[in-house]
Amino acid sequence: MLDEAALSQGLRANRYFADDGLLTAVHLALVLGRPLLLEGQPGVGKTEIAAVLARVLDRELVRLQCYEGLDAGQALYEWDYPKQLLALRAAEAGGAAVGDVYAEEFLLRRPLLRSLRHPGGAVLLVDEVDRADSEFEAFLLEFLGDFQITVPELGTVRADVPPVVVLTSNRTRELHDALRRRCLYHWIPFPDPERERAIVCAHVPEIEADAADVLVRAVSGARRLGLLKLPGIAESVEWARGAAVLAGGGDPWPVALRRALGLLVKDEEDLATVHAGFDELIAP
Question: Which residues form the AAA+ ATPase domain (predicted)?
């Protein structure tokens, strides 16, 4: 297991600049073997931390994308009914005894079971758990509490190497207390300007230093305008990347930033608001 300094170095090597609070939360989750529940505005790096952790820990990333109507079969396991039926017909045609149609070979491993069965351990991302129905959380409790799943036909499946679990939520609804109690919780805020500048420059090295300062200042100002959809770090990086393309084609940086605003703001009313105050946003 990585110590905190090695973890920080590994994250930075993968261009993820965690603040002290997030770094502590990830470190404790790894050491204590607790699921990590991350909340925050969209685009602050909740999902990305799981992908980066998989690379740092050299584990496979297993992702469960949550949505309304997600059920246990889609998240845990399902039986391969067509394959079972073919096995029955083959046995009947050959006059052989019908074997166990609930054997492992007929089991379809969905993300939760796949993460338990991974021989080297996996990083499991349960993304946007708040989008799933509240009833789905009950299916997660046994898994998060003991890293095991009960398959009625096979018994209890336990992890030889417990997965590293990261759950994310955008707070479209409140999560149940029972789920929260099983997790180590951390809220990820928008980064301070210095850290956001480091993130932008790491992902878009061709951006000029002065332009990076202007861009980060403009993003911080835009988030204070009461927009319907606040731009996240991902939008800052994409805005920098798009503006760099236009600047490379000959546009001055202020012009390039204005022309590429559609990469930062994704709503018509918000775009009009930012356009109207653009000169003030980029002013020193």
Answer: 32-194
